[in-house]
Amino acid sequence: MNNKKAFSIIEYAILLAIILTAFGIMQPHIQRGLYGLWQSAGKSFGYGRQYDSAKTVECAFDEQINQWYDRRCFEQAVSGRVPPCNSGDTTCEAPAMQGCVTTACAQASTNMNGA
Q1: Which phi and psi angles does 62 have, rounded to 5°?
Q2: 84-110 CB burial, b ≥16 within 10 A, e <16
Q3: Cα dist. 61→14, 42, 87, 90, 109 in Å?
Q4: Whole-number CA gyration radius for the chain
Q5: DSSP one-letter string for 42-86
Q6: What is the pLDDT of residues 54-109, one digit of tens each?
Q7: pTM to 2 decimals?
Q8: For 61, phi and psi rounded to 5 degrees?
Q9: How far is Cα 67 from Cα 94, in angstroms, rounded to an integer?
Q10: Rounded CA separation 97/112 (Å)
């Protein structure tokens, strides 16, 4: 009687080992499948669009002119001047900032503030 019980425990242990080995072997495939589901879920939020540096506006706030401006536009405007602006030269930088004030930055700042 005890011999059958011991044999049954050994059978269950071998079955459990086979199942765990199967999961271990299939782990990369299961993992890839789950990552694919996460990727498709993430793309559904962006409708397949990813970050595009050419279309992204990086906004900055200047306390002197009290407005938001596009930082990339400002960097291009300042570096394109002859002679170039010195850092902190408000007489040179302020007109460039004014030329780079965008409605996108103003809207983003009001959205962040909850207004």
Answers
A1: -115, 125
A2: ebeeeeeebbeebbeebbeeebeeeee
A3: 67, 31, 16, 14, 9
A4: 31
A5: HHHHHTT----TTT---EEEETTTTEEEEHHHHHHHHHTSSSPPP
A6: 777 788 888 877 888 888 888 888 777 767 777 777 777 878 788 888 777 777 65
A7: 0.45
A8: -115, 135
A9: 11
A10: 21
